[in-house]
Amino acid sequence: FELISLGSHPFGHCFVMKFNDVTFMLDCPLDMTPLTHFLPIPFVPSKRLEALKCLDDHCTPKTIAQQIKEVYPNYFLDGQLEFCLPELGAVDLSTIDAILISSYHCMLALPFITEHSSFHGKVFATEPTVRFGQQLMEELLYMAERVCKDRLPSQWKTKDCKDRLPSGLKNAVDTRCWKPLYNESDISCCLSKVQTVGCGQKVDLHGSVELVSLSSGYCIGSCNWLIQTPYQKIGYLVSSSQLTTHALPLDQTAMHNCDVLIMCGLTEAPAFTPDGMVGDFCTNLARTLQNGGNVLVPCSPTGVIYDLLECLPSYLDNMGLQSVPLYFLSPVAETSLAYSNICGEWCCKSRQDKMYLPEPPFGHSELLKSNRLQSFKSLADGLGDVFKTPCVVFCGHPSLRCGDAVHFMEVWGAGSQNSVIFIETGFQSGEPIFPLAQVLAPYQPLAMKAFWCPIDPRLNFLQAKHLLKDLQPRHTVFPEAYLHPPLTMPQRSDLILDLEGSFSTFTRGDVVTLCVESKLARATVAPELAASLVPLEVQPGVAVASIQGSLRSYDNRHTLVTLPHPVSTKGAFGALLESSAGKRDCEEGEISDQEMKQPKRLIGDVSVDVLVQELSKVRTEMRLVAVCLAIDLHKLELQSPFATLYNTSCTGVCIQFSVGKTCLLCMRVCVCMCVCVHVISKVRTEM
User: Fold this and answer.
1) Strands lying side by side in the sheet with 449-452
2) Is the pTM for the entire model greater than 0.85?
3) Is the previous residue joined to 325 through a cis bond, with omega within 30 degrees of 0?
4) Is the peptide bond before 111 cis (omega within 30 degrees of 0)?
5) Which of 90, 358, 601, 652 has the fewest Cβ atoms within 10 angstroms?
6) Do 156 and 64 form a contact (C-beta atoms < 8 A)?
7) pLDDT tens readout for residues 599-630
């Protein structure tokens, strides 16, 4: 087992995992933090932004200096927006067999991989994840390309040039991984390659492993992944929630006793509770409206906004603000609201029950019917015809670098009665993934109030520790950042993941190698060979039959088939084979063809010492011998190189391979130097 971390920062989980000769990529998110280094792109031209001065530095090439604008004391890039990809250059993407997507937030970099790399494997995700992921991609593309900007010269990212730039840009990290966004064709082609799976559905991959998607409880369609073989189990527990939200609850049953459990995507606001932040959000919003101000909520078009649209109207009613309109602006606003109401089977039970009444699972349907909530694709989509203040506007982008949020910041920024409330989560060293000071820097001087109310239902550190104690994995792998409290709260020792069991940690670029081996493989008996078996009852309820076959392997599937020609076997088991009439001693030597045709069995009490002594004489070059044993012992301990025979618990066909290996079906250790097949119609004893 090998795990490579490609995430662009401690909480941007993207991995390449090698297990059982199969290579996976686990998630492929798009890091948005580079956006804070860019100047906002307004849809409506802004005289203030157009009047900003360029960088005045003779040491910087003129073509670059003209695209760096000053908003004292900060400098920003004025050009086409760029995003940070995972460290894709660290692996050969052509070797990846499959990409597993856990949620729509974690697939925004997928078009870069499927359309602009050598990757030709499969992609698995749930249906809601694909649809909501498509909406996020289309919204981001629309915002980034709505206003045409020149692409920045690539030479500004070189070390020599960066060293001469102002401190804010000089300290920008991972600039070699920054890329402009993909196009609409890339999105369409990428999503056509995704294979959708249902919750709990099992998918066989190349006959080597079985993939199982399990609800994570975080958002609609989000899932954890189980990668397993008949004797090994790897769990990928990411962005999960135990809280009661609109999504399906967390399914943790199948995650018990994993050989390796990869845990990441814990809450990015560990010092805050979701319920408390929803309360603060409503309080700050109502206070602003009561003072005659307007409220801007920069957010994504899916996820938390569904919950806010459930609780906010009733809160405003209680505060006497029933007449305040709610506006939702996004190129996918209508699609997002509509699709959420047809995903009832991916929601919690209370919302599923509404579908049988029938009622829409979410309350925003009633808000739309009453026109209390109105959705628009953009500012130019008729908003001006119905717009009135004071109001609440939900729109993107949370970075305040693109989308209609830029326009409202320019218009409302000078009014101290107005507010902007950030609800998106994301921590990096204990600060928001879009730090407020850095997000608001291009709009300074700013009079409007800014609040940060992170609403993140994902597992916190205490919940994660309790969950791991319940799941009891043999080994846990998680980010090294979870071992330390946030830099801004070093005294909070409760904001760490301190485990007692076996664990490994990683940072970006680390390779975690663990020994997760199995000497077992599952095999089946061909129907024609199974039909030729003639079991003989040796005692009431116990029947055995000898069998000869040839083991064939194809596409990681093993089958015992009929021998193409007779097998000649020489004397290693002469002392072990006895007729049903009693014991017969024979010297080690050739076994004649006539003897091979006669059924010979060892039945009854067996001397352990004699059995061990005879088995030790077996020659390694011996070919196929069919031997069936039915031993009426509670447990047979073999003091030899053959280890222990464990209890038989299966009914049917068990196939055993070479010495010291464990039985493929009943988990016993093989006792012969050959392929030993025994058919047990009913097992009452233990071996």
Assistant:
1) 373-376, 326-329, 392-395, 295-298, 419-422, 449-452
2) no
3) no
4) no
5) 358
6) yes
7) 444 445 556 676 666 666 554 333 333 333 33
